[in-house]
Amino acid sequence: MADPARVKPESGSFSETSKPADQIKGSSDGPVSISTTSESTATRTNTKEDKKRSAEHTTAAAGGEEEEEGSSSLHTPASKKLKVEHEKKKEKRQKVDEDEIQKMQVLVSSFSEEQLNRYEMYRRAAFPKAAIKRLIQSITGSSVSQNVVIAMSGIAKVFAGEIVEEALDVCEKWGDTPPLQPKHMREAVRRLKSREQIPNTKHKHILFH
Questions:
Q1: 141: DSSP letter
Q2: Which of 4, 85, 117, 181 is most buried, judging by how many CB atoms fall within 10 Å of its CB?
Q3: What is the pLDDT of residues 152-204, one digit of tens each?
């Protein structure tokens, strides 16, 4: 049997004699606990993870900004093209309006006195907007804006002008002389309806076979 004094402790075994005195003894409050070291290591790992997350967040934000910049750079040429096209259309409209004004000035300057008086009467003639508004409201049953009233009064003026022009042709064809009579107006309306230039107000019964 071996002498216990000569037996050496194993290298892997835990023994209190192998520890130094300062490790065995704790502070004045008590022995040192292992949980404090584990908590310190956990806080270190947490801080590392927080740093990684913040770095990932910043890289993601930078990538999003780059994507937005890329998308904005892709959209800018299209918007510029639209602006250029819009400006070109405006210039064309202005040129067309100027050409029409010049042509109208040349035409009016070549009018005779009678033609000029008739043109002035045509420009001054207009349907009363209050009557047009009452008529629209009685048909639709709802109030309408002033722009709708102006548009409808202009359309009514054009419609009346077409009927008068056709009535003058009827009067000339029948060998009559102006002023126009109701028979000329009725014949003009009949002709325009036959050519489908006036919408039919009568209700059509559609039969399904």
A1: S
A2: 181
A3: 999 999 999 999 999 999 999 999 988 999 999 999 999 999 988 887 766 56
Q: Measured between alpha carbons, how far is 141 from 135 in angstroms, rounded to an integer?
A: 10
3-state DSSP assignment of residue 100: helix
Compute the C-alpha angle 103/107/110, nearest 5°.
Answer: 145
Are 152 and 132 a contacting pair, CB within 8 Å?
yes
3-state secondary structure 144-208: CCHHHHHHHHHHHHHHHHHHHHHHHHHHHHCCCCCCCCHHHHHHHHHHHHHCCCCCCCCCCCCCC
pTM over 0.85: no
Whole-number Å distance between alpha carbons of 118 and 111: 10
Spatial contact of 192 and 169, defined as CB atoms under 8 Å apart: no
> In angstroms, rounded to a whole number, what is the distance separating the alpha carbons of residues 193 and 140?
24
Local structure of 48: helix, strand or coil: helix
What is the CA 97 to chain-centroid distance, rounded?
28
Rg of the chain's alpha carbons, rounded to an integer?
A: 49
Asked if 155 contacts 177 with a C-beta cutoff of 8 angstroms, the reply is no
